[in-house]
Amino acid sequence: MLIVTIVFLSVLYRFGGVDGRSKSPLIEDGEHGDPKPINKAAECIFGNQRRELGQTWVPNLGVPIGVLYCMKCECIQIQRKRRIVAKVQCRSIKNECPEPTCEEPALLPGRCCKTCPGDRFNPDIIHDVIPPELSENEEKSTKHYAALLTDRSSLVLRNDNDEPIPNDNKNNVIATGRFTFQKKNLYYSFYISDKAARPRTLQFVNSMGTILEEHILSDVGGLVNSVYQNATRKVCGVWKRLPREYRRLLKEERLYVVLGWGSKEQSEFTLSGQLTKYVALGTELFSSLLEPSPGSNMQIMSGAGGTAIVSISTVISPSIHLAVVFNGIFLPEEIADVPVNVTLAFEDKKMILTEKVYVTKPASELNVVEISSPISQADLRLLTRGRLVLSVSSMSKQHSLKLSGMVMTKATCELFQTPLSSSGDRDTNKYGTSGLAWVFLNNEGSLVYNVQIEDLHPEQRPVFITLVDISNKKRTELEDLTPSFIDNWANDTIDRLSPKVLEPLYSGDLAVNVASEKETSLIKGRLTPKLVADARDVSAPILLKREDRSLPTSAVGMAWFSVDSDCHIHYDVSLTGMGNSERLLELSLKFLPMSAPDAPFVTRILDEFKGNQAEGSPVDPLSKDELVRLDSGVVFVKVKDKYTRSTLMNATLKQVKVPQNCLPHIDNYVSGSINGEEAIPHTQGACFHERRFYKEEAQWTSLSDPCTMCFCQNGVVKCDTMTCPETNCPPPGRRLKNPGDCCYTCTNSTLEDNETAIPKMCTLLGKTYLPGTTFHPFLIPNGFDTCTLCVCDPLLLQVKCTRNGDEKLCCKNCPSVTSYTDSENQTMYSDHHTVVEVREDKNANEKSAERILAEGGCRNPYNPQMPYRDGQKYHPVIESLGEYKCVTCKCQQGQQSCERLKCTRAMCKMLRSRSKNNHNNGNNLNLASTNNGNTVETCCSLKQCRFRRHQRRRNNSNGQ
Ligand SMILES: *[C@@H]1O[C@H](CO)[C@@H](O)[C@H](O)[C@H]1NC(C)=O
Ligand SMILES: *[C@@H]1O[C@H](CO)[C@@H](O)[C@H](O)[C@H]1NC(C)=O
Ligand SMILES: *[C@@H]1O[C@H](CO)[C@@H](O)[C@H](O)[C@H]1NC(C)=O
Ligand SMILES: *[C@@H]1O[C@H](CO)[C@@H](O)[C@H](O)[C@H]1NC(C)=O
């Protein structure tokens, strides 16, 4: 029974799931393994929900199966060699049902076991045990950890055979990490020795060396794609949603981090360290990575290193605080109360600070010393500009046992951002000016800034852009960004940064102000810190502009989007000045293949939120089509009011880098090209032709050639070009071809004289023709019917068509009637009425045409005297073919809707076997008359059957 259920579920989920992660949650993953990096090892995905380790639930499979009350699922840990992975395990609990205590137990709704009245014990009631949400305190408080990664780590890494992994760190590479735990996520950042390439992997492990989480940091060659990481020379990332158990390990300082170098096949060396809390981290403004100084005794100092956490305070008079974490400068005989010399110097010349401190009990892995000292403003400036060297040395061997390093920008990967918003007063912001700004400190301690200002009216120019300290009422202007303002952007770097900027920047009291000559503050915003990872680790955010005019003019937003190597999209949206904060908002993306008329679009809802912030990544990965459009199409970001559906904010999403492995490998797919039509991905239900889109079933004249007509069927464009029939006008030379016409028309004096009068026209199948025009009718799906010649009779203004009797070229059993007309006087249809229903219904004939139309009937273009009645089904009549059986129409309330005969598998099979026998080329237009009674051959071409097969195969593969 259990096995049956599991197989059934797996089938169901195979179709529901999209990628490897959400594949059948009830099937054991085979040992042959995951092809993808096990990035999200610490959580389970079931259906469309993330489940934390340790969570249990009753599976709900949705319609039509619903809840399986006799199954219990759990997100469990599995140890697979050196890794712990999360996995969904479901089992039947039917066998655990107790023996009923009464004769007629009942199965109550929502239960698995039969019970008797009064039964208390309910083994089958499992509640969705959702681990308690973080308490508000936990949610808000940010916790800081640091790690020193050296060869002196106590952690022993073992390979799959439980042997210690040899570590070949020839160049004495070391690293230091900072970790910020925020909203269940652990953000990490590292400074690594300059001499090392970017590490390939990062692992979080427990004290046994078992891998709990693993991230791939760089592709082959150690390259980094991130502008931020490149400019700061940091390694940045995030471990999202730590399960409770791992949060506990972190809190108890039992979590380790391991950086690995080398290739996937061949590991070169690793560095590891323990995540430790230090009080000083809460106020850290600068960091330092300490390496053995030149001239050190590398026998004693092999694999040694250190890091410093540097804070400053300017409350009364400037002072500096150093917490130095280090190892490796002790001689074997130094075991207690060992003095070390800590110095801070400017380019080996000027000693700024030198202090002797004692290490009570030297340890081989971690020693911590702390120092506080006053510092002059001038030295503070040197510190801010990254000019100071920190060192710690042994007192007994000052030169050979010494660690030193530059004091640099804080190791944490963070940037500071703000939307730029007006006060909301319509008078100060007449033109809806808005903007955004973000800044960060690079490797040299310079401030990199980007400011964007949009909808600035010429009369508001020039503008003045400044960085303002708003920590007190004085509002001190600290830096002027105006000189770099061009083309709505101010992008530049401030090299000689004033120390006065850093403190308000880190404490959230630095604002960007944009003033005009009239307004001291046209738009402004306070820079808030954000940790760099996922969505924010891209080159630039986008500006969300107010779209709904009922929003205050102050409404503005900024949003970051990225796509990771697993093809998941990440977003981070910040809004401001929106007014009503209780409104439920919806964040969505609207994907278009390109900017073209009538382009078909798909919309994906990313989030629903209240307030000013939304951040995350949907469980459902993007489809290939969405990824292609993100890469080379047009995507709009929308923030809507969930209930009124009004679009409040809107932006165009550009420059989202989609990793190559996420894009389909189609030979002729040219990334970024929109010139070649072949580059437009095939879009269900729409056709792309000559730079615009057409709906399924549409029919149009080519924009470039009036003789070419096209139609869209099953997303495929088919075109046919007509050769103009010869036009013989009675007085020769009276031929006329207007631009936009395909064929010559005959003119006569009456027409020319009355040019201003309403032009006289014939109409057929929704197209109009000038009097005298000769043409071949255009019939879906086959194209121009060259066997039929139609002419717009200049006198009667009726289209008359004649069937070409050429049996060889056109038809074997041509209909006997050769002339058609939609004349109101003559009814030439009577001979060959094939619209049976009309004839059968005698009453219809008696009713006047007007009456039928008034009662919801539909016009009959070929016989206006005989409109179709409301509700009537019929085949449309086409000149050369008579009744066109491939299409069935229905008249409903004055509207006709038509449907093409579906080519069934049986029909296609029949066609194929017949065409084999006949050596018939299925690509030829097949215009055999319906009168020979064979709808299969007429309506379904071999090509259509081939398309049908292709379509079916595609649908199947999409569903897996
Ligand atoms: C990384 O930085 C270097 C120099 O700082 C620059 O030349 C290079 O273009 C940058 N690469 C990226 C991907 O930003
Ligand atoms: C500490 O080191 C500095 C620089 O090497 C040196 O000038 C100073 O004298 C040392 N301090 C002591 C107490 O040895
Ligand atoms: C400023 O930087 C942004 C983001 O990198 C870029 O899109 C924009 O083109 C730049 N503008 C100028 C004028 O350099
Ligand atoms: C807002 O969205 C529409 C499409 O829905 C688009 O045509 C328009 O250009 C967008 N505006 C901006 C600023 O992107």
UniProtKB/TrEMBL annotation:
Keywords: Developmental protein, Glycoprotein, Repeat, Secreted, Signal. Residues 42-117, 685-747 form the VWFC domain. It is found in: Secreted. Coiled coil: none annotated. GO terms for biological process: dorsal/ventral pattern formation; negative regulation of BMP signaling pathway; system development. Residues 1-20 form the signal peptide. One of its GO terms (cellular component) is extracellular space. PROSITE patterns: CHRD, VWFC_1, VWFC_2. Residues 141-280, 282-412, 534-658 form the CHRD domain. GO terms for molecular function: BMP binding. InterPro entries: Chordin, Chordin-like_regulators, CHRD, VWF_dom. Belongs to the chordin family. This is CHRD domain. It comes from Popillia japonica. The lineage of its organism: Eukaryota, Metazoa, Ecdysozoa, Arthropoda, Hexapoda.
